[in-house]
Structures are given as C-alpha cells and as structure tokens.
Amino acid sequence: MGYRADINEQVAILALSRVQVQQPALLRQMMDIAGSAKEIFDNLDYINDILPGISPTLVTALRDKSIVERAEREMEFVEANGIKLTCLNDSDYPARLFECSDAPIALYSLGDIPFNAPHIVSIVGTRHATAYGKDMCASFVHDLARLLPGTLVVSGLAYGIDICAHRAAVEAGLPTVGVLAHGLDRLYPQMHRPVAKKMIEQGGGLLTEFMSESNPLPQFFVQRNRIVAGMADATVVVESASSGGSLITASIAQSYSRDCFAFPGRVNDQYSCGCNELVARNRAALITSAHDFVEAMNWGSGATAKPRQAELFPELTPEESVIVNLLKSSSDGLQINQLVVKTDMPITTLMPLLFDMEMKGLVKAVAGGCYRTLV
Known about the structure:
44% of the residues lie in helices and 12% in strands. By secondary structure, it is α/β, with parallel strands linked by helices.
C-alpha cells in the first residue's frame, strides 16, 4: 500500500502535477499506464510494477509526502474561492486540448468558460503592438463576431495584441479566455484586472494549469503557450517580431496539426517581420480579414461549423491542374520547395497560386509545411 491510500482522484492528480518533469506529456502517460493518478499513489510500494522502467528520481519525487499535502491545500483554496478544477479525466475537459499529448492533467478556471464552443480561435502577437496591429486585431475580432457570433477568443492577457484581442472580444460580445502563466491568487499584469473582470462576467474567464502561489516566471509563459494553441481550432498571429512567444505558439499549433494564419505587414516593419516570415516559410496562411479566415477554415455562418465541399468536377486552370496532379501522386503531400522544383514555378508565383487554391477548396496546407489535394 502507498502512504496515502485515502486520497481521492482529484487530490492525486494535483499531487502528480507537482512532480517536476522535463516533458509534461510524461505525467499523462503515467496516468494512462497506471489507470489513474490515485492508482499511482495507492501503490507506491509496488510502483515499478505499476510503471515499469520508472526512473529512481521520479520514484523519489512521488514518495515526497509534501506533494500530497500541497495538493490538499490547493483543493481547499479552490473550494474557498469558487475556482473550477477540471481534470484530464473529466467529461468537460477541453476536447481540443485533450487531443494534445502534452495537455495539462489539471486546469484551474474562473468563469463559466465554454471550453468546447463550436468555434475557437487563438489570437496572439507582440507585446509591443503598433497602431496598425491594434487596428487589425480589433477589426478582425469585431468582424468575426458578426460572421460567427459566439466564437471563443483565446489569448494570454499580456500587453499588446493579447489584451487588444480580449478588449475587442468584450466590446463585440464574444466570450474570451485569458490563459495565465501563474496561479489564480494573483493577476499579471495588474492593470488588466478590469478587463479580466468583464471577461468573466461576459461568459469567458481566466484559465491556468498553475497552482496558487505560482509566480509568473519566464518559462511559465512559454509553457502556457501550448494551452493557447491546443484549446483552439486555429491560431492567428497579428503582429510579431522575428522571435517571441507568438511564434512559439504558432509553432506549437503546427505541431498539433492546427491551422495557423498571419496578418502581413510591410517588409521593413520590425513587428511584422515575424508574420511575413511565417507566410514566406509556409508556416501560416496569409489573411487580411475575418472573412478570409472564416473562408479558409470552411466555417459557415451558422452555430456549428459546416465544412465547405469542393466541387466534384472543378474547372482548373492549367497551373492548378499541374499542382493537383502532382499532389495526387503523393499520399503524404508535398512541401512548397518540392512543388517549386516539380512545377518549375518561381516561389513568388507559386505561393499566391496555392493561397487561391486553398480559398477555392482545392488544396489544404497541413503539418510539416506540406500541401495536399482536396479534389
């Protein structure tokens, strides 16, 4: 028997979340193999039988009684402050996030967040947003509210594009959730508290994987980006320098096989070069409006998404026919550099052509920078 056979599954999950691992996916794998978090703690004396090959370091961490004591204190904090605890094995866990192998095993939230709304989009960008970026972000959100009422907007409540997306969603009547890099006993930045309050009141809220007393450390911001990407159907990058958190989020979204989009900017603008590079490297589709986005996602104007069906016998231009035939010959799809070679088209010609074909429902960009045919 383990040292705490009386703990329930929720406490066991919170205790397990306290175990320091390099890859968050490992905690989920441990639960899957053992059958539950409680099973792990109930059988610590036989842990090598329950989890074959477990490292001695992990065994020592699991035997540390303080992690269970900390989990029990956190449960008291959750219950005393009206916080919702959603565990990986709960039926209302965010379905899109559940599909991600490194999904957090526990989530804390304030507000009645529609985790499984029909349409969810993450909007990210630089903390040093320009007037252009703020205008594009606000226009995108307001038009999205008109085209698809009820769309859930996800961002990180940070300065710049994040807070612009949240404010625009509140103004447009859309639910919006801020994914935090700290516990729910604080709010960073403090000046965004009024917006956060409106977000909660308007059917959105705040979400985190971190327990109370967790400070907003730099590595936590990177860690929370996988939630921002994993919760949504697509990630939209509004403005970004050549490096930064929004590009990390876009990269994570791609690794989850989620759609990525970016607003273009002038080639010499510091906070557009990241977006321009995403498009140039075929890591994001170029959009200039919410209408572009809705069309690219094949989202109808109704309450649920209705995939747009390509014509059975579409009329193709000679160039489109060449691309479609090449893609049909490859079951795994072709990368843009392969298409450049095989079609003998310059990339400046090929990229706009592929974008037009996406809009027509002829091809689709998939993970790994590849294109596949839809006809």
